[in-house]
Amino acid sequence: MQYGVFVEVDNSGEDRDDRIAGLREQLAPAMKQTAGFQSGVFASNDATGTGIMLIVYDTEASATTVAGRMVVGAQPRPGVTIKRVEVIEVIASV
Questions:
Q1: CA distance 75 to 63
Q2: What band does 62 get if pLDDT is binned at 50, 70 and 90?
Q3: Phi first, then psi: what are they for 26, rounded to 5°?
């Protein structure tokens, strides 16, 4: 069974171009290097200032390890605040 790390952020304080560059050039490549990585999705809604990340791992232990590095309230980049972190079971993917 696969497990995901679901993260929701408030990214309303970050410039859109900086956000896209940060996701594509820093965060996505870093997540891809984590143990057990299977796939990932990074999305943003400019209108609401919300971003989400769902990274899928091969085991619950791998997902839990990565989730443990993310703290609600932390600011991983200027203008970005982590609002929610959950480890979730992947039921299906296409």
A1: 20
A2: very high
A3: -120, -60
Q: Which helix (H) or strand (E) holds 38?
A: strand 37-45
- The model carries a pTM of 0.94
In angstroms, rounded to a whole number, what is the distance separating the alpha carbons of residues 73 and 94? 32
pLDDT at 43: 96
Q: Which residues contact 47 (CB under 8 A, 6 or more apart)?
A: none
According to DSSP, the residues that pair with 9 across neighbouring strands are: 51, 82
What are the contacts of 90-94 at 24+ separation with CB within 8 A?
Answer: 90/1, 90/2, 90/3, 90/4, 90/56, 93/2, 93/39, 93/56
Q: In this structure, what token pair is assigned to residue 76? A: 């991983």
